[in-house]
Specification:
By secondary structure, the protein is an alpha/beta fold. The chain has a single domain, classed as Alpha/Beta hydrolase fold, catalytic domain (Rossmann fold). Helix 2 links the parallel strand 4 and strand 5.
């Protein structure tokens, strides 16, 4: 295992204002009114993100799955000067193909053809009324898309839930995967085995239903960006929040609940030693993401989401894996520190191509 560490420095200034107790009720009422007005003024995308522009042409792959006709949205970005290599980008649960924007630009500029799908149940793809979500099913769907495009060898780059999917895909189709890159993948620990209690799909649906931009921003600032925030992150907050508003938003919440259940009940960590494709783990070490953590006891919570330790353990478990760390980044280093992240990514892609 080889470890590469790039130090990044940040400074944060936070100001707190204390309100007189008598003013609290009026201030809260004003805040509620402002929140309602802001919600009405924000975009209403609903299911399949209608009206949200990724900045890249979006195509749709039509196929049948589980007795349904479905549409899988995807970006197929072709480079001006091809190097003959293909990168397939797998997004996370609270992300979409479009959130790979900077990565797509970087890879195409360096000759890679980039395929970035929206998985079924996510973003611009179909939001089925009933679907048995599994990592195997999502892998089969993605494999069918790539076969449809006539692509049979590629590098998989998976972030968050997409990293968990990338690990499952590499176990299922090792002959097609030239290299696996996992960026802060969830699933580096088995939450159930550690004591995180299960939640019914109905409970998960209630927690997903009616999410606001403020809810999403608070969560992302805490976990994805290590308590830092940049104005450009709001685009992705509004994208996600917009799906919970507008036509079909109820189905968005339901599918999100089913996907949360999939993540909890289908660990892949126990099969890491069986991954045989060259693997790179890229870890923002300030990440503390752990699905279901809030429902666990304080004792269990203390054991969860320690990404520096989880990254090292995963790199030892996966044969011949390499570990790249970003000590000051959270769950999304490709967004938080794009220059440093993409230099490391290109270095490892080029090294693998040279072998």
């Amino acid at each position: 295992m080889r470890t590469t560490t790039r130090q990044l420095c940040y400074a944060v200034a936070t100001t707190f204002t204390l309100l007189p107790l008598a003013a609290f009720s009026a201030t809260s009422a004003n805040a509620d009114t402002a929140k309602q007005g802001a919600s009405e003024s924000l975009p209403h995308y609903g299911a399949e993100l209608k009206g949200f522009n990724y900045g890249w042409p979006v195509s749709h792959f039509s196929f049948n799955s589980q007795r349904q006709s479905l549409q899988m949205a995807y970006i197929d970005a072709k480079p001006e000067h091809p190097n003959g290599k293909v990168a397939v980008l797998l997004h996370g649960k609270n992300f979409c193909a479009g959130t790979w924007d900077t990565t797509i630009k970087t890879l195409t500029e360096h000759g890679y053809r980039v395929i970035a799908p929206d998985q079924i149940g996510f973003c611009k793809s179909s939001q089925p009324q009933g679907y048995q979500f599994s990592f195997e099913q999502l892998a089969h769907n993605t494999h069918a898309l790539l076969a449809h495009l006539g692509i049979d060898h590629y590098t998989l780059i998976g972030h968050s839930t997409g990293g968990m999917l990338g690990a499952r895909y590499s176990l299922m189709f090792p002959g097609n995967v030239e290299q696996l890159v996992m960026v802060n993948p969830i699933g580096l620990e088995d939450w159930r085995a550690k004591g995180v209690p299960s939640q019914s799909v109905d409970e998960l649906y209630q927690s997903e239903h009616g999410k606001t931009a403020a809810d999403i921003r608070h969560y992302e600032q805490t976990f994805y960006y290590a308590n830092h925030w940049q104005p450009e992150y709001d685009k992705w907050v509004n994208m996600l929040a917009g799906m919970y508003r507008g036509e079909g938003s109820d189905q968005v919440a339901w599918n999100s609940a089913l996907l949360s259940d999939m993540i909890y009940t289908q660990p892949v960590i126990h099969e890491f030693p069986n991954i045989r494709v060259p693997t790179v783990l890229m870890i923002g070490e300030k990440d503390t993401t752990a699905p279901g953590k809030a429902k666990a006891t304080p004792e269990v919570q203390k054991q969860l989401g320690h990404y520096p330790e989880l990254g090292r353990a995963a790199a030892k478990a996966i044969p011949n894996a390499e570990l790249v760390t970003f000590p000051n980044d959270g769950h999304a280093p490709q967004i938080q520190s794009p220059k440093q992240f993409h230099q490391q990514l290109l270095d490892h892609l080029n090294a693998a191509a040279a072998k």
